[in-house]
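hey m, so remember when u said the tokens were messed up on ur end? i reran from scratch. heres the input so u can diff it against urs
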Amino acid sequence: MKNIRYSGIFIKYVILIFCFFSCGWFGREDGEKDFNLTFFATPQKDRLPYFRGSDLEVFWMEGDQQLPTNVRKVDPFTFQNQLGQSIDESHFKGKITIVSFFFAKCHGLCPNIIRNLKFVQSEITKRKDIQIVSYSVTPDLDNPLELKKFAEEKGIYSQYWNLLTGDREKVFDLARNTFQADTNTTNKNPKKDFVHSEQIFLIGPDLHFRGIYNGNRGESIKTMLEDIKLLMRELPTNKQQTPSKI
């Protein structure tokens, strides 16, 4: 019995050692790049990352690297804001944009996220190159008139913050395929059922995704505001400056 027990222990050690070598746990120093990985990049404190692919994989650019073709950016759209004005993706160009999803009758996540974004609005009132864009996920109910009423009730100012509505399928397509903001996993009716996430997205002046945050958490909002300071360096008017505050 003793020999059988020791034989079992020996076999376990052999298997563990095999796993260590096959997984590459030996033979590579801590922090050394695994060149089997594609587009490996080291996190950088003074630069924001980009995102790519369907799973929003995060990566940092290094040196003169070219952005990959699957880098995530805002897809074309045309919707109306609370003033009935036509807004499309060109309104993002040359600006820093904070994107969220909401609906006017929401009593769950939305009120706290709106409060947090109102704080952001108060921080960007002196800037013309930073804006907030919130897409309604109940566009059939949230027409421009309803959105205007909602904006007035919540103290949302159109010069800093656009509330957008439009064709349901086009809104859902943008939310799901560009931002992956739908948390509805039941798929009961993908054309009607939509459960928006609490994520908010930071979009750079070239329409690329540069940050994703929890809009329901104050600490995450503060992190985003700090990241905006970094991103401001990429604005055409700030490339030679290091903004210390918004």
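this time it looks ok to me. The chain has a mean pLDDT of 81. if urs says something different then somethings off w ur setup not the seq
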